[in-house]
Amino acid sequence: MSLIIALANQKGGVGKTTTAINLGACLGRRGLRVLLVDIDPQANATAGLGQVAPPGRSVYQALIEESPLGEMIVETGQAGLFLAPSASDLAGAEVELVPAVAREFRLRRALAPVAPSFDYVLIDCPPSLGLLTINGLAAAHEVIVPVQCEYLALEGLGQLVYTLDMVRRNLNQSLRLRGLLLTMYDGRTNLSSQVAEEVRTHFSNTFEVVIPRSVRLSEAPSHGLPVCAYDPSNRGAQAYEALADEILASRPVATAGVAAPVAEGGAP
User: Fold this and answer.
1) Residues spanned by the domain of 198
2) What is the per-residue burial (b if ≥16 Cβ within 10 Å, else e) of 126-158?
3) What is the pLDDT of residues 232-260, one digit of tens each?
4) Total domains present in the chain
5) Does residue 76 fall inside a structural domain?
6) Which residues contact 200 (CB under 8 A, 6 or more apart)?
7) Residue 57's domain is classified under what CATH number?
8) What are phi and psi of 79, to 5 degrees?
9) pLDDT, tens only, 22-59
10) Can you give the pLDDT at residue 17?
């Protein structure tokens, strides 16, 4: 019974990759098997876990060459957490996917044989709404949207919600918005409180936990570690532990494998 969660937001620098790494590590620490799939050409999730994709063994080969994704998966050194790494080759995938058959379903098909071996699959999407992100959304059961607690935080969320609706109607009927996650929260400023209040007003499914702004959270990737391994007592580590608990507490009962295709047409 695998639950596939995409982390998506077309805005960069909102804590999406940080969330993917640390949520995955926290779930793994609870005895679960977690696969983190890095489909961002910048490969920040891969580097943040201290990994480098071996030559010819990255998500690129799974998406473009349709090689078995299982051959790409590596151990991260963190309990229960495995990685399907990204590489710079993926930068050209947006163009290469355009003429491909069933281009929006490449990731879904790649995940189908391996997802049942994991309790959770987390997909770290690039900061865009291009074909790679569409692949992530078409393969997922749920989406988590990290939102930075700063000015213009809501800018672009309307377009993201529209894209989610289009994917749901045309590609993945079972996709649901699990919730918005408030990140980089600074309780010393009125701005963070105001942004958090506005997000909660517009989106009732915003997570209760907020991720604080933390130097340790920023430092951990440079050591190739999630913050729960780098500094377990840090406020950021505790917040991600709480997020893992919140997700586990509200996990849907009926979920089986990769979401079934609805239609294999053009991108929305």
Assistant:
1) 3-249
2) bbbbbbbbbbbbbbbbbbbbbbbbbeebeeebe
3) 999 999 999 999 999 999 876 444 445 54
4) 1
5) yes
6) 206
7) 3.40.50.300
8) -55, 125
9) 999 999 999 999 999 999 999 999 999 999 999 999 99
10) 97
